[in-house]
TrEMBL record:
This is 5-formyltetrahydrofolate cyclo-ligase. Gene3D superfamilies: NagB/RpiA/CoA transferase-like (3.40.50.10420). Substrate binds at residues 55, 60. It comes from Microbacterium oleivorans. Its EC number is 6.3.3.2.
Length: 196
């Protein structure tokens, strides 16, 4: 059953997906370099020793270089693995870790799986998003995995969504189950938002 809010979300996601697909390889490479620098600074600011992140797709602001560098520096990085029940398992990132196509065709790590509660011990959550508004509301890609994860955590650490600069917007459609984020990381800046 779809309502007007669901239709609005779908339309906005389609528009954002189209914009991402139009970015050049050079622009995406620059974005990955910028995100790497911003995440390095964020990790240093928070004194992070353990965190979650995600394996970026080819059209997302790149996280893979950051993950490899963080692992090389001794930071424990958990990567999400989708499950059919709507929850996320986690795998510890490795410098030369293998990946495979996950449940929805997205890249996921291959290796020993940790349960959904493994993420409860991290100092920082870094998650994907389609857009985030200035109040901290995040528009995801419609499957609810990260909303469920954030909503179920007893003590949620800071949560930052990785987006392009143009995807920090004035407002996004919001439903009851949607979870806010602490801030955003873009290729040019890290912005703390007022919600958490």
């Amino acid at each position: 059953m779809t309502g007007p809010l669901d239709t609005e979300k779908r339309a906005l996601r389609a528009e954002l997906r189209e914009r991402r697909q139009q970015r050049s390889a050079a622009a995406l490479e620059d974005a990955a370099t910028g995100v790497h620098a911003q995440l390095d600074a964020l990790v240093a600011t928070h004194g992070v020793r353990s965190m979650s992140c995600f394996l970026s797709t080819p059209t997302e602001p790149g996280t893979r270089e950051f993950i490899a560098a963080a692992v090389a520096r001794g930071i424990r990085v958990l990567l999400p693995v989708t499950r059919a029940d709507g929850l996320l398992d986690w795998a510890v990132a490795e410098e030369e870790g293998d990946t495979a196509e996950g449940l929805f065709g997205l890249p996921e790590p291959v290796g020993e799986l940790l349960s959904p509660v493994a993420v409860n011990d991290v100092d920082l959550l870094v998650i994907p998003a389609a857009a985030v508004d200035r109040t901290g509301m995040r528009l995801g890609w419609g499957r609810g995995y990260f909303d469920k994860t954030i909503g179920s955590m007893e003590k949620c650490p800071p949560v930052y969504a990785v987006i392009f600069d143009s995807e920090l917007v004035d407002s996004v459609p919001r439903e009851v189950h949607d979870q806010p984020v602490s801030g955003v990381v873009t290729p040019t800046r890290t912005v703390l938002l007022p919600t958490r």
